[in-house]
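Lab channel / #folding
Pinned by the channel admin:
"Please post every new chain as: sequence first, then the structure tokens as a reply. Keep commentary short and put observations after the output so the thread stays searchable."

First post following the new format, from NK:
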Amino acid sequence: MAFITETRKFSRLLFTTESNLVDPTTKTRHPARLLDLSLKGALVERPKFWNPEPGHHCHLEINLAQSNVVLTMESEVAHVNPSQLGLRFLAIDLDSITHLRRLMELNLGDPSLLERELFSLGE
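Reply from TO:
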């Protein structure tokens, strides 16, 4: 994992792991490698046989293999390019946000930065 410094409102972590995108209308699972992660969204490799448009709703499931934990976020496709999908989180359950917060806390190294970002989520 590495920290990406940008002028974004939410810090992103380079975090590669296996994940799934689940289309709620067809219930189809599409394996996709997670590339980076923030409190508000994620970047994933675009699945080969799935071509969603921006605005399409899906569920992102992130497998944390070391702990057998699966984070689940209701998401919306924010942007699409030939090799990647940008996702915006719409809803996240309590267990998933707790694990996500801990991941961010361990990797940001600045508790005040995480607190500002968590405060921004509530606005």
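NK: The chain has two helices and seven strands.
TO: also worth noting, Residues 71 and 95 are 8 Å apart (CA to CA).
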